[in-house]
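Cont'd.
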Amino acid sequence: MGLRTGIRTGLIAAIVTIFLILIGVHMLMGRLLQSWFYVPAHWPGVWLMVVLLGLWAGSRAVGQMKARSWGNTLLAGASAGIIQGALVGAALYLLASITQAGVDLRAWLTQMSQESIAALTLGLAPLPAAGFIGGVLLVSAVAGAAWREWRLRVHAARLARGERTVSLRERLLEIPAVAQVSSNPLSRRVLMGVFMVLLLIAPFFLGQYWNYNLGTVGIYVILGLGLNIVVGMAGLLDLGYVAFFAVGAYTMALLTAPQPHHIQMSFWLALPIGVLLAAIAGILLGIPVLRMRGDYLAIVTLGFGEIIRILSKSDVLTGFTGGPRGVRNVGHPVLFGKDIGNEFYFFYFILIGVILAIIITRRLEHSRVGRAWRAMREDEKVAQAMGIYTLKYKLMAFAMGAAMAGFSGAIFASRNSFTGPEDFVLLVSINVLALVIVGGMGSIPGVILGAFVLKGLPEILRELEDYRVLVFGALLVVMMIVRPQGLWPASRPQLERPRPEEEALEEAPAELVEGEVGS
Amino acid sequence: MALLEVHNIHTYYDHIHALKGISFELDRGEIVALIGANGAGKTTTLNTISGLRHPREGSIIFDGQPIHHLPAHEIVQLGIAQVPEGRKIFSRLTVMENLDMGAFTRRDRAGIQEDLERVFKLFPRLKERRNQLGGTLSGGEQQMLAIARALMARPRVLLLDEPSMGLAPILVESIFQTITEISQQGMTILLVEQNANMALSVAHRAYVLETGRIVLSGPAAEVRENPQVRAAYLGEA
């Protein structure tokens, strides 16, 4: 039924379009195009959004259709476009008339300025303006419907010819050069090398601001890799991960700052102590929560994270922790008598930390410990029945994850020269968990990519100002719907799909003895 | 002396008194069947032996050593392996990785390799599918994998919990044939089953459980002839 899906989709699309206009996203698009692509005026961005929304409505209507024919497609596209166009046109008519009557809509809708509406009416009177936007939406919707129908037909024809649908990855591999690089370990290594060199020289060109931001991304990579051990590998949902970050940061701060303790220890000494204390904190938290799983574990760890933060700002402990005002003048690393406490040096320092964390994670993955974690994650009771001492391995997971958090916390505090309770809010735990999930749980490149997306992207999106969080949130939602396994999921190359015939590999059982199974 | 002696064990789930004084023994090389209805305490008995639960009273002696206070992982190391109810294979790990997990407590590479070849001989299907995810196997293959995984621990006693659960009759037949085969290779087996007919046909001796107590015991053939057993468990009037 082309008509019914068309009407339904048109309604949804109209609501979305009106909402976006009311919060001023069209103006935002206009400004973005201006600043990113040097478009001279803001109207191309504004109308790009309108056209895209029309295309989307038509395409969606066709996608929802069951009976496929060009007639139905036209019906679906046109009905979606008419509904969307009529409603949006009506809304614009209202907005324009009210504004014309001299009412300032900004009293209720902060983004509904004169020029925001003018960008849509193009200086026309309310009625023709409404007709124009309606017409644009209708044409776009029909075009979107036709495009979608064409795509679907191409796809169906390919299937009919017996060709498999190809993923982007496979399509890339069809390019000879790509295939060669991905299959040849040497060229892969060369590629890695080039990437490393680029990373190594990047700080010379990037300037303070981006060095700082890249450093932050690196700190989050280490945090992510640590949490990945706890959540991704061992399957223990920890929502209070920030607590260990805080332990590392406060250890560094209290041991190296002149206030409140006058210890002023060397950075190099305070760093391992911070890591160690964080690991001990991990074990201490681990002991009481060992018998909990899933939701209960999440709640208890969440509470632990908050306890640490509240303790750090409590008045009673002000003499010990610096209280709500935090600790200032945290020590910097000094190497050969030189203070290397700026963004530039910290970039390298963090890079070393990231590489270390990657090496540790990879070793653990393929070790006996990694296998025990995987079994535990799958089924704790059965893991026990296999002879795995689950208590021990849970504590190890907590301690390892906490140690990595402690390391990044210590660096974080030293780099900022300051630390305080507000650095350790719940949002940090959530962010780290989100980057692990967005990147792809259990996957090292996934965690790195996730950290870039979650900590780097918001910096790039800074142009969006007020909308940063909104756009970012929307991106996350879309991501998890479109790609729930994460951006770069853990791959398991030796895996086979069920197949009727399989070649007999006589030597394969050696894998088991080598302990290399499951890379 | 029996290989495994269970003396008067009482196991609780909080306030629920699940096992009310169960005693039995297992001689070397025997297949002993525990049969009974749902909730009779069959699985609890196995879990108590394997250390997943601990008895509040009573003792379990394995090869002369009391084991009822030991944690599960130490009991596996002593040589008791369990095939859990409902198979419980690691569905997101491959067949090889599953088998690998079975040998977790062992460090003798040569021995592990030997046992791997042994289970592949016992279950050629698993060899064909060794790089497939456990979850993609059929029910029968999963049961094979669960048994093979337990054998990888090179146990002296194998605890089998409902190996026929949810399998087609023809598969049940073949699983029980394998169980007999494993037994003939010298394994001592404690078999828990609801499918009493099948269990009694392969077992040497049997115990009948009812609400946490043993109500009948004897050689499998005798238990099979018992009129009450015939009426209650073998579906005969």
